[in-house]
From TrEMBL:
Keywords: Signal. Pfam families: DUF3500 (PF12006). Residues 1-22 form the signal peptide. InterPro entries: DUF3500. This is DUF3500 domain-containing protein. It comes from Arsenicibacter rosenii.
Length: 346
């Protein structure tokens, strides 16, 4: 099963690379249309829901039953089409991270001594859902993948990408230490290492602002809430950093945005510049010494008027990572959609 799943991913990478070379910078709609058109009536009932269905706001990152069409209920061609659609919405790096996260289900089967046919840790147990109709060019629609440690939703309006949040990526194990082919894999290493580098480059006075607790929380603070909210903005502000520290801060931030289509990345960067980079703060909680493992729990966040990024590595003896990007003004594409409906009403 694992070999078959990996072959589907490789087929998707090859096919979508060719497609991307032939189409415009946003080839999303045709690829999602291809996926939807490939479904039979029973599959379509599972995979395609109304755009205003409340299920669109129902996301989580733990193993559980979900709505949508899972990979295991697709034909090989449909799996390739689903992964192609996802690939068009991500960067090469982002797609590699997602497929590696999915492959960790095979690692957990070994670590937890589960049988090969186990359905709790299953790389084919990732669900795809389309909300709305991609064939209706002027109407909003979205495309979602939802499963263990992967929860991504991409919003479209008038054929244009308008949002990609909430966007969750996790990794269990954070670092693969078991004697398996994936041993040594550290999918979210850059997100971890850059934050440590920034933290340990701060002066003692700067640390007094940046470190908000010596204790690491047990998860990302906002969990899977429909609307992300942090009680207060804590940490050290971008404007209080040196030029070198600011460069590292932005490198950490863009590590998250670099996972997505360049249009989506640039949308976020433009909003950050308009709201003022000096409004961004970096906050840390937990262990401050570099290292990953028992007793080394880490949490940090980047918080500003328009964005919230959280990273937590505390579970499973600090070898289980959760990370999320939230657009505080446009989660689920809501702000852009509000403007669209207001203009239509006028």
């Amino acid at each position: 099963m694992k070999a078959l799943f990996i072959s589907y991913l490789l087929l998707a990478v090859t096919a979508v690379t060719t497609l991307a070379q032939k189409q415009s910078s946003e080839p999303t709609t045709p690829v999602v249309q291809q996926f939807v058109h490939s479904l039979n009536p029973e599959q379509r009932q599972l995979a395609v829901l109304a755009f205003d269905d409340q299920e669109r706001y129902n996301w989580y990152y733990v193993p559980r039953d979900r709505k949508g069409l899972p990979l295991k209920k697709m034909t090989p061609e449909q799996r390739t089409a689903a992964m192609q659609a996802l690939q068009t919405l991500l960067s090469t790096t982002g797609y590699q991270k997602i497929t590696a996260i999915i492959d960790l289900e095979n690692v957990l089967r070994v670590v937890e001594n589960r049988p090969p046919n186990d359905t709790y840790r299953d790389p084919e147990n990732y669900y795809f859902t389309v909300f709305g109709d991609p064939d209706q060019a002027k109407m909003p629609w979205s495309f979602r993948i939802d499963g263990h440690h992967v929860a991504l939703q991409f919003s479209m309006l008038n054929g244009k990408l308008i949002g990609f949040t909430p966007a969750f990526m996790g990794s269990n194990p954070g670092v693969v230490r078991a004697e398996v082919p994936q041993k040594g894999t550290f999918i979210l290493q850059q997100e971890a290492d850059l934050a440590y580098k920034l933290l340990n480059g701060l002066t003692e006075e700067q640390l007094k602002k940046a470190v908000i607790s010596d204790k690491c929380p047990g998860d990302i603070v906002t969990t899977n809430t429909r609307k992300a909210s942090i009680d207060k903005k804590e940490g050290i502000a971008y404007g209080e950093l040196t030029t070198a520290q600011q460069k590292l801060f932005l490198e950490l931030l863009t590590t998250y945005l670099d996972n997505y289509h360049v249009t989506l990345k640039n949308q976020q960067l433009d909003k950050l510049r308009k709201s003022g980079l000096d409004q961004l703060v970096f906050a840390w909680a937990g262990d401050r010494e570099p290292g990953y493992g028992p007793g080394k729990g880490q949490y940090y966040r980047i918080h500003g008027p328009t964005i919230l990024i959280e990273f937590d590595n505390s579970q499973n003896q600090a070898n289980h990572i959760h990370s999320v990007v939230r657009d505080l003004t446009n989660d689920f594409g809501e702000d852009m959609l509000r403007l669209h409906y207001e203009q239509q009403h006028k």
